[in-house]
Prior knowledge:
By secondary structure, the chain is α+β, with helices and mostly antiparallel strands. The chain is about 40% helix and about 25% strand. The protein has ten helices and twelve strands. The chain has helices at about 1-30, 35-50, 55-60, 130-135, 265-280, 300-320, 325-330, 350-365, 370-390, 390-415; strands at about 80-95, 100-110, 125-130, 140-145, 145-150, 160-165, 170-180, 190-200, 210-215, 220, 230-245, 250-260. The strands form two sheets. Strands 1, 2, 3, 5, 6, 7, 9 and 10 form an eight-stranded mixed β-sheet that branches. A hairpin with a 4-residue loop joins strand 1 (about 80-95) and strand 2 (about 100-110). The longest helix has 28 residues, at about 1-30. It is rod-shaped, with a radius of gyration of 51 Å.
Amino acid sequence: MLFFWGLLLFTLFPVAMERGSTSRIKKHHQQPRSQDIKQKSRPESKRSDLTKTHLTKSEQLLRIEDHDFAMRPGFGGPAVSVGIDVQVESIDSISEVDMDFTMTLYLRHYWKDSRLAFPSSNNRSMTFDGRLVKKIWVPDVFFVHSKSSFIHDTTMENIMLRVYPDGNILYSLRTTVTAMCSMDFSSFPLDTQNCSLELESYAYNEKDLMLHWRNEKEPLKTDEQILLAQFFIQEFRASSGLAFYSSTGWYNRLFINFILRRHIFFFLLQTYFPTMLMVMLSWVSFWIDRRAVPARVSLAVNYLTTIEERKKMKQREKFSDSFRLNQTQTMAFDGCYHDSQLDVSDYGEARLSVANTEARERVSCSNPDGQQLRRKKSIKGNVTAVMIKNNHVIDTYSRILFPTAFILFNFIYWCLFS
């Protein structure tokens, strides 16, 4: 019995193995199902979406992908005309130390690019923000002699692009720029400063880009409320010119010139009035008694008064026998004490004049050849003697001369610098 089952198993086992291998071969050569095809194709479609750029309807209407916007409009032909107008929002600061100024303005560009023309039934323009600016050609205008600048970005970049059906474009941005200003302080604080903000294309010379003011009559607009701490704006004007670079050629340049005049009222209160008062207070000394030394400001009068008193003291010492002075009277001649009731100016004057006359006669007889020299010395001596003897005349003249000279100086000063 066992022999029978063994023989049957040995006969059927090769047949089963042959059928199993045949079925596996048939399954391997069968076509894949649609579900399998979809599952395999999904990863490939995802990879293709990552490299594909999705265009908005407006970009498709403008045919952004059909043109190379790395080139300027009309490349190879005449220069593209770009008009500029500016609206100054504010002058934020003016630094005399750094010699610069900071200005916030709206900068607008106007040009035509036929590549962006689109059909429109109602002739209405399309307005975009800064995202489209990165995909098309725009003028590369920069600020010459600028130290720093930035485009405002709150809450988004302050950039506006407006495209018209015929291809005309308005490109506007709000920016703040800090630029150099060479200042002259020789007339400070009555100075006037002339500053300018200059615009120019960086890459395109006059053969490729023609930069000009769009509205020649009114290319520059300003806010009437622009106020500065130390200056007021005397003039705002626009001009244009050419700049030459030896390696690249001629470039169109636009100028925004503004003249600043310093406010004088602040300096009148802080500088001029206090110094004028100090000068006028110095004149009070001309009305003070010349023997009041601590109260005197002008030292010429004090010096001459001291010389006169010393000479009088010597004279009084010679005639001390006939005129005896007490200690209080003696102190009146050294500038420390003054007795208004004491008048000793005429003591010994007669005898002094006689002695001087006799001395002059002896000198004239002993030296007849030195008459011219004696005259010169006598004139100088007489002037000195008159000044020493009548030193109070200096105060009298000074009361008139000093105010007159000060008024004349102010007249010349304000005529020249104001």
